[in-house]
Amino acid sequence: MKYILITPAHNEAGFIEQTLNSVIAQTRLRERWVIVDDGSTDATAKIVEGYTDDHPWIELVRRPQRQDRDFAGKAHAFNAGWKRIRSLDFAVIGNLDADISFEPDYFEFLLGKFGKHSRLGVAGTPMLEANHDALKDSFYHFKDVFGACQLFRRECFEEVGGYTPIKWGGIDWLAVRTARLKGWETRSFPDKAFFHHRPMGETDSNVWKARFDYGRKDYFLGNHPLWQVFRIGYQMFKRPYVAGGLALAAGYLYSIVAGVERPVTADVLKLHRSEQLERLKSLFAHFAKTGRINVRG
After folding, report:
1. What whole-number distance in Å separates Cα of residue 259 and Cα of residue 72?
2. How many CB atoms lie within 10 A of CB 107?
3. Which of 190, 185, 188 is nearest to 150 (CA)?
4. What element of type H or E holds 260?
5. I want to staple 294 with a disulfide (CB 3.0 to 4.6 A). Which of 47, 117, 249, 286 is the partner?
């Protein structure tokens, strides 16, 4: 099963070598890896160039500098990479962030899942950070596939239309839910994990801003209000205690008052909210039976 990788990279000089070395060490060889330097002002492109001579399957694509670091830019960069490889023969396409690392058999493991499950459209694994374990610190669900490393069956990727540019984030979220809407299975396999090296925020103020932005994104991606209440309550018990949950609530409420326009279709919104309500029912049923909340759903 042939696969290719695309990595949008913007000012990732501090992390990208770990990603480069992880991909080079893989037990299953890739056909092509396109790294799109998205207008970096640091040494990102120079670092990648240092690898291309010895590894001709790595291609560097340069894009002009841009002022804003936003998620729409990431989608545009990925699509620039997609144009470079869409004519090639491959079965799986991977979206890979430039600040992660993983074990040498990581892609072999995921490709094996595509081979076993014919309707598997999107696959990945949980994420680890220095102070964050997605299995323990979030409302993890096996259908969720983290955006920093997503592998798509090619037919699925083309059917969902790839990544839609959204300024405030959620491009990977939207692609995964659109895949489920079209009848594909999406799955995160907990047998392995990738490590995310870029910290969410070096200071508490950055963490609070990130929580506020998450709350804002929760609203415009359509989180059900009841789900959001429990999400906020859950975050109250995570660092920064109480304040993180309040910042999340503030971002959600701000978006309501500001009348933020949602970039999702009515069908995706309906699917998303129905899945959240089903998960809440499962959480309540598990709590009634065991007295414990199972956030892995």
Report:
1. 20
2. 25
3. 188
4. none
5. 286
Q: Give the closest residue to 169 by CA, choosing from 244, 264, 63.
A: 264
pLDDT digits (tens, 9 = 90+) for 32-59: 999 999 999 999 999 999 999 999 999 9
Give the global pTM.
Answer: 0.91
Strands (E), the chain: 3-9, 32-38, 58-63, 92-96, 100-101, 120-124, 127-129, 132-133, 149-153, 185-188, 194-196
Distance of CA 155 to the CA centre of its chain: 19
> pLDDT digits over 178-232, tens only?
999 999 999 999 999 999 998 764 444 578 888 999 999 999 999 999 999 999 9
Phi, psi of 58 (to 5 degrees): -95, 125
**What is the C-alpha to C-alpha distance for residues 183 and 181, in angstroms, rounded to an integer?**
5
Alpha helices per DSSP H over 12-56: 16-24, 44-52
For 110, half-sphere exposure in the C-beta direction (CA atoms, 13 angstrom radius) is 33
Pick the closest to residue 256 from 228, 280, 234 (CA basis). Answer: 228
For residues 231, 237, 240, 242, the Cα torsion angle rounded to the nearest 10 degrees is 80
CB atoms within 10 A of CB 50: 12
Nearest-angstrom CA–CA distance, 128 and 97: 14
Give me the residues paired with residue 8 across strands. Answer: 36
Choose between 289 and 85: higher pLDDT: 85
The helix/strand/coil state of 95 is: strand
> CB burial class (10 A; 0-12, 13-18, 19+) of residue 88?
exposed
Answer for the pair 59, 34: CB distance below 8 angstroms, yes or no: yes
Half-sphere exposure of 169 (CA within 13 A, CB side): 13
Of residues 111, 278, 127, 269, the one with CA closest to residue 194? 127
